[in-house]
Automatic annotation (TrEMBL):
Span list, region Disordered: 1-163, 189-234
Pfam name, any one: CRAL_TRIO
First-listed, main subcellular location of the protein, grouped into a coarse class: cytoplasm
Gene Ontology biological process terms in this record: cell division
SMART domains: CRAL_TRIO_N, SEC14
Record keywords: Cell cycle, Cell division, Cytoplasm, Lipid-binding, Membrane, Transport
Identification of the protein by name: CRAL-TRIO domain-containing protein
Assigned protein family: Belongs to the patellin family.
Gene3D superfamilies per record: CRAL-TRIO lipid binding domain (3.40.525.10), GOLD domain (2.60.120.680), N-terminal domain of phosphatidylinositol transfer protein sec14p (1.10.8.20)
Subcellular location: Cytoplasm; Membrane
One Gene Ontology CC term in the entry: membrane
Keyword flag Cell cycle: yes
Listed Low complexity bias regions: 8-19
């Protein structure tokens, strides 16, 4: 088994090794805890035997080096992926018909033990009775004689009671000749068993067709008493597993997580559904778990492709009180885990699972002042959360952006990079503190980025909204850059500007169009330090045409990122 499972990984590196290991562990736990899952144990073995056939599919899947190139429209999928999707639907439908997505009750685990005890108690009878039982059981297969018809088994109970009384008497009478008593028993069984079937045909022959009708009427209720069970209804994130195109989007997530290996994907879906019921995910949405961690994990804005962005700020755990209240003991870590799952579930419910919709998010992980790997409690909680997310939330991340990354994490990332697939590595982006804003602006527009990360988005009522696009400019070292906003008659110009890290000279003035006009200084040139202001907002009202000129003088030896936007509003006297 181990050798077979390693072949596909070495051949095409279809999936991260971590995901494969987690899946096998979850299958072993499910098999040990749930007797009804014993059938599932055979499925991974079959999947391993079929893996060499699926290698062609794996190569096609790994051709897409980026998450963006994949489609959720079933009609646009390659033929092997269409076939895998259809096969997965068939497996799910069969499982729904058999109600395999319901976790078995805990009582079923104790049932085999009492049955074994009963079997052990029965042999405690006398030796004579055991001999009688052995003798009566041995000829049982001989009792099904060729002379008898197929009907006698219906009246089997009556002859059995007569035989038992006769056998006991004969054994007590003849103890020395055991072989003869066996033959006598066989003959007595034949003599007693044959008369009842002979009587039934005579009664049926003498009677009219009414008994046949009665027999037919008796058979019909038996069929009606065992109707086929209604298929089980199972939903994930508010969407049924087999309903419409949205269901296909969800099934494709599990297929991609298992490189379109149908049986592995089916096992993952089944384990996910059972885990959600055992964990109580649906009821978790309504739980009140507090808002102490709202600055640690929060949603803010969208990236340039429309994905919602989730920020994870690990530096908040430098607060010792917050750290102790979150990770001090197992109970608090369990509450943190439930809070994290609740937050993720609420975020997923806002996604669009239509084939052309956005059903993934962008994760921004801020590692500035993070506690690091030395904090055992944080490491335990993080590993537990990662396992649950990998097992039960596949393909929900479009991009993983790590900013303010310390040197130790960069070294760790370089060490594990060879073990990651191209598909996984295409989602990971790491940036040092000096490059964090540039990396964020590569994927997220400045007006969508929070101010603490170099953007223009901030809380409260502002003159600008996310609908007002901003402009990015890179200012070279030891250079001066100017920005001009045109002004028409009787208008008010509003603008906001920031330089990431500032440490530059800034000034603003109004220059009229008329040659005989006078230049008006709007903001006197001054030095803006890193901690002075995050965003400078200003406005200028004029009754004549002209332009607003902003001047940024970068006298440092480093490049500077300038972000600005403006708009003009007409006014009447």
């Amino acid at each position: 088994m181990a050798e077979e499972t390693q072949k596909p990984e070495a051949a095409a590196a279809p999936a991260p090794a971590e995901e494969v290991v987690v899946e096998k562990e979850s299958e072993q736990e499910a098999a040990s805890e749930k007797p009804t899952d014993a059938v599932v144990e055979d499925k991974p073995a079959e999947a391993v035997e079929e893996e060499p056939k699926v290698e062609a599919k794996d190569t096609k899947v790994t051709e897409s080096a980026s998450f963006k190139e994949e489609t959720n429209i079933a009609g646009e999928l390659p033929d092997p992926q269409k076939k895998a999707l259809d096969e997965l639907k068939q497996l799910i439908q069969e499982a729904l018909n058999k109600h395999e997505f319901t976790p078995p009750p805990a009582k079923d685990k104790d049932k085999p033990a009492p049955e074994e005890k009963k079997e052990e108690d029965q042999p405690a009878t006398s030796a004579a009775e055991t001999e009688v039982k052995v003798e009566t059981e041995a000829p049982a297969p001989v009792e099904v004689k060729e002379e008898e018809k197929a009907d006698p088994p219906v009246e089997a109970p009556a002859p059995e009671t007569v035989v038992e009384t006769e056998v006991v008497e004969k054994v007590s009478a003849a103890d020395d000749d055991g072989a003869k008593t066996v033959e006598a028993i066989e003959e007595s069984v034949v003599a007693v068993a044959t008369p009842p079937p002979a009587e039934k045909p005579e009664e049926e022959a003498s009677s009219s067709l009414k008994p046949d009708e009665v027999a037919q009427s008796e058979e019909k209720p038996e069929e009606a008493e065992v109707p086929p069970p209604t298929p089980q209804e199972v939903s994930i994130w508010g969407i049924p597993l087999l309903a419409d195109e949205r269901s296909d989007v969800i099934l494709l997530k599990f297929l991609r997580a298992r490189d379109f290996k149908v049986k592995d994907a089916f096992t993952m879906i089944k384990n996910t559904v059972i885990w959600r019921k055992e964990f109580g995910v649906d009821g978790l949405l309504d739980e009140e778990l507090g808002n102490e961690l709202e600055k640690v994990v929060f949603m803010h804005g969208f990236d340039k492709e429309g994905h919602p962005v989730c920020y994870n700020v690990y530096g908040e755990f430098q607060n010792k009180e917050l750290y102790q209240n979150t990770f001090a003991d197992e109970e608090k870590r369990s509450k943190f885990l439930r809070w994290r799952i609740q937050f993720l579930e609420k975020s997923i419910r806002k996604l669009d699972f239509s084939p052309n919709g956005i059903s993934t998010i962008v994760q921004v992980n801020d590692l500035k002042n993070s506690p690091g790997p030395g904090k055992r409690e944080l490491r335990q909680a993080t590993n537990q959360a990662l396992h649950l997310l990998q097992d039960n939330y596949p393909e929900f991340v479009a991009k993983q952006v790590f900013i303010n990354v310390p040197w130790w994490y960069l070294a760790f990332n370089m060490m594990i990079s060879p073990f990651l697939t191209q598909r996984t590595k295409s989602k990971f982006v790491c940036a040092s503190p000096a490059k964090s804003s540039d990396i964020l602006f590569r994927y997220i527009a400045p007006e969508q980025v929070p101010v603490q990360y170099g953007g223009l988005s901030r809380d409260g009522e502002q003159e600008f909204t996310v609908a007002d696009a901003a402009t990015e400019v890179t200012i070279k070292p030891a250079t001066k850059h100017s920005v001009e906003f045109p002004v028409t008659e009787k208008s008010t110009v509003v603008w906001e500007v920031r330089v990431v890290g500032w440490d530059v000279n800034y000034g603003a003035e109004f220059v009229p169009t008329a040659e005989d006009g006078y230049t008006v200084i709007v903001s006197k040139t001054r030095k803006v330090g890193p901690a002075d202001e995050t965003v400078i907002s200003n406005s200028f009202k004029t009754g004549e045409p002209g332009k607003i000129v902003l001047t940024i003088d970068n006298q440092t030896t480093k490049k500077k990122k300038l972000v600005y936007r403006s708009k003009a509003k007409p006014y009447s006297e």
